[in-house]
Design a protein that fits this description.
By secondary structure, the protein is α+β, with helices and mostly antiparallel strands. It is about 65% helix and about 10% strand. It has helices at about 1-15, 20-25, 25-40, 55-85, 90-110, 115-125, 125-130, 140-185, 195-210, 225-235, 235-250, 275-295, 320-340, and strands at about 215-225, 260-265, 265-275, 295-300, 300-305, 305-315, 345.
């Protein structure tokens, strides 16, 4: 609203200096009221909330631009009236000073939208260089106003470029921040969540399990004899094996809310909210059987590899901690290894 009030002040100065209310009382009051209404429309209705939709924000911005451009057009009309009406000659210096100030403010403050800002500057300022030659202002004033019009155009274009560079820099920094944030959560080889993200998700799902009084199951999976893959086929094949294993996990664990992660090395984790031990063990068995019947496909050919899986379940009604859940699933996985590998072992079974 502050910007709109400056137009009201400008009109008051012109109307007093030019004795507008003595000669055109009704028109003068109407112009002043119009500037005041436009000033009020800048702040009402208020800006949409942060959760507003994009169409809502765009409609609000378009409306704001309509108010701003209407104010600019009204001022351009006032300036034209001041320059053409000889009775308002005493107000000409104030009108020109206000016009320079308003046009400069437009060039600096609204240059992000170049086309609309150019229109606003033209509405406010162009009456001056176009009509001054028809007044008694003199060649010096007319030439100065004309040169300043060029300056305004240059300032507007330069400000627009500066804004664009700042926006580009902001977008680049935001993209970089998003990349760093993603790298802090995602294992780059498999695209699964890393151990750090797994821990945060375990805490979150544990709180949800307590709130909903539903079970939360966890699987810890370890590829059997994975060292042989690296030793016999090379580390590139080992990396490919881990990536293909992660792809197979995505195919098998499609339960709602399932969270997949690489815990480190050849060890992987799965969180299954809402599933009890029986259902989680069945999901683990599908994964184990899938590897047994459908070997992973590497560039070197099919890779016959098995997996040992430990299953544990957190039941809010029975107490315990989420740390106990992780340790129980890990303990069950080592039990599966000790029992001969390529099997599913449920903690406590």
């Amino acid at each position: 609203m502050t910007g709109g009030l400056f137009y009201v002040f400008g009109w008051m100065v012109i109307s007093v200096a030019g004795e507008v209310f003595d000669n055109h009382a009704v028109l003068g009051a109407g112009v002043g009221l119009a500037f005041l209404v436009l000033a009020m429309l800048r702040v009402w209705p208020r800006q949409p909330a942060l959760d507003a939709t994009r169409p809502q924000l765009e409609r609000w911005l378009d409306r704001q631009w309509g108010v701003v451009l209407a104010t600019a057009a009204l001022w351009g009309g006032v300036l034209s009236w001041t320059l053409l009406d000889r009775h308002l000659a005493p107000a000409m210096p104030a009108a020109l000073l206000c016009t320079v100030a308003f046009a400069t403010a437009f060039a600096h403050n609204f240059s992000l939208r170049l086309e609309r800002a150019l229109l606003g500057v033209a509405l406010v300022y162009l009456p001056a260089p176009l009509l001054l030659p028809h007044t008694d202002a003199g060649l010096a004033v007319t030439a100065t106003v004309g040169v300043y019009a060029i300056y305004l155009a240059l300032v507007l274009v330069r400000s627009h470029r500066d804004y664009q560079r700042q926006l580009d820099l902001y977008d680049a920094l935001r993209h970089q921040r998003d990349q760093y944030e993603r790298l802090s959560r995602i294992d780059p080889l498999t695209g699964l969540a890393n151990r750090r993200h797994h821990g945060g998700t375990l805490d979150h799902l544990g709180r949800e399990a307590q709130r909903l009084r539903q079970p939360l199951s966890m699987l810890v999976m370890d590829l059997d004899h994975f060292k042989r893959v690296n030793d016999e086929l090379g580390h590139d094949a080992g990396d490919a094996c881990l990536a293909r294993f992660a792809d197979r996990m995505r195919e098998i664990f499609t339960e709602p809310g399932a969270h997949l992660s690489r815990l480190g090395g050849e060890e992987f984790g799965v969180l299954l909210p809402g599933l009890d031990a029986v259902a989680a063990a069945a999901a683990a068995e599908r994964m184990r059987a899938s590897l047994e019947t459908q070997p992973l496909q590497l560039r070197e050919g099919p890779l016959a590899i098995t997996v040992s899986i430990g299953v544990a379940t957190y039941l809010p009604s029975q107490g315990g901690s989420l740390g106990d859940l992780f340790r129980a699933a890990d303990r069950a996985m080592y039990q599966a290894k000790a029992d001969g590998r390529n099997r599913v072992c449920v903690d406590g079974a």
